[in-house]
Amino acid sequence: MNALFSSNQSTRYREQVSQHIAWGHWFLLGNILLGMSIAIRYILATPFPDTGMGQLYLLVSWIGHFGYIGFILFLLTIFPLSFLVTNHRILRGAAILIAAVLQILLLIDTQVYQLLKFHLNPYVWNLLVENSQSKSSLNWNFLFIAIPLIIALEIVFSSLAWKRQFRRARPWQGRTLTILFVCCFLATHLIHIWADANLYLPITAQKSNFPLSYPMTARSFLARHGWLDKQTFDAQRANAANQLHRRLVYPLAPLQVSASDNHPNLLLITLHGLRADMVNNVVMPNLSRLAGQSQRFTQQLSADNERETSLFSLFYGLPASYMDDMLADHRSPLLLDELQRQDYQIKVFSSQNLKQPLYRNGIFGGVRQFRAHKSDGDEQASIQHLLSWLPEHANGPRPWFAYLQLDTPGNLWTPSGLQGPFQPELTQLDPFNLPDNSKRNLVVNRYKNSAFLTDQMLGQLFDRLDDLKLTERTVIVITADHGFALSDRGQGQWGAGDNYDETQLAVPLIISWPGKAASEYQPLSSHVDLAPTLLQELLGVTSSSSDFSTGTSLYQGQPHSWVLAGNNQQFVIITPEEITQFDRQGHFEVRDKKHYQLLDDSRPDMPMLLKVMRDLSRFRSGPESDASNRR
Q: Mean pLDDT, to the nearest integer, of 72-97?
């Protein structure tokens, strides 16, 4: 009798489990469809693929990814509960609660992604929790409607799924849906393997659209079987960013210009790797004297710690994250375009090769009859070319724009046989072996001697400008691409490019503007402010700077409470007290600005972060930027 009772109980248990699993399958289908519906927000928040293959991949990845995620979550939650919970009401209640929480998290993630272009992770979640009571533009009010609606839908799914299992079975329906999701999942990864091997950007650019998306690559497998040339692939991959065509809207509206009859000349000088603290009466007396007679911006920060990206921001007035797109589209900066439109002569003097993409496809790419004096590394020759050119155009009928690029400070260059005033100095430079801290004073003196030599060359130029009476008719702008670390905190950091402290970002900005009184500006300023300053103050552009730049005029705009630096991978927000660094995955770290030490208990300000993300997408077309511009 006991054996019979046990057998019946076992049979009943198996039937209950079978019912629960059958119910779970249909409940899963309802949640997959709901998740796909919510995920449409990801599709609307990213540029829509403009190729048929890219659109096909978007469709199959949308179906396959959320079908796969739903199935995995089913295996981890409802499936084991089906064996542990015998009461179907308790099981269904627990499943409704779990599914509702997951769908709400997905909905929150879509909101975060729309505004920040990050998916939820511990860093972002902590940031959201800590800012939940602050006034920000994330706007969570929609959750008051969305949460009850999701819970109601989960109850409906549960009820319909429970009724569905008691109807006459139609196995082909379940099999058809299963085949659809499995085929889409496999197609997603197979198509991405092909796209990754062929650097097909309309597909590979979608790899981070959805949360928990890790599409497969098979480079090693393909290379091992001779189907992929790894060396060629790596070379093509290095240039892949230039092949990605994003639709840029630059400027957002045609420029409105009210040019005056008086057209001062413009001389822009950039000094490679010159720190702001080198402009003093001891190291650079000539430049220091000019600074005392001009407008000096004491809190000027470079837009990046690398040369090309910082110069891009200087000329375009935009964050360096736009650089690859501008160069791919061969867009010249509006500053150069307007100078040409107002009939300025344009001349460039540099000791470096100007055939890099930044110059050829970008800054000077749109200059008609472009001519540059290149001196093959001889800085003195560059100055002499400029000194010889100036008298020919001192009293000409057309205004001119001259750009002088000197590399001496950042290259630690001094002529052989010439001893600078700062001794002892490092005499042998080994680019492959960084000096240790015991030689710091030698390196510092070498750097000061290079800056001193640069100052002597600038002194010749200033004297010539005075002799030709050009100082009264020329706006002179002097700055640096970035700073230069001299192991200031004893950590063996030299040069630039490895962190975002003040030694690598703080640069001089000196503007000698005829008619403007000598003054010292102490608010934060950035490289992105120079282009709007020259366009509005010099060339008479009346359009709002927000139409063509993320910066503002140094003379008209409100003082910055923070400035943005960084590049395509790393974004840096700098305030007077803190430096916040974050990457495209949403990983944050906040450092003290003065000592560059990590602050474990500090988090970025949410409204400031939202403004940064809008600036990074404002000049791109599509739903993503359109939404940003409207907010």
A: 88
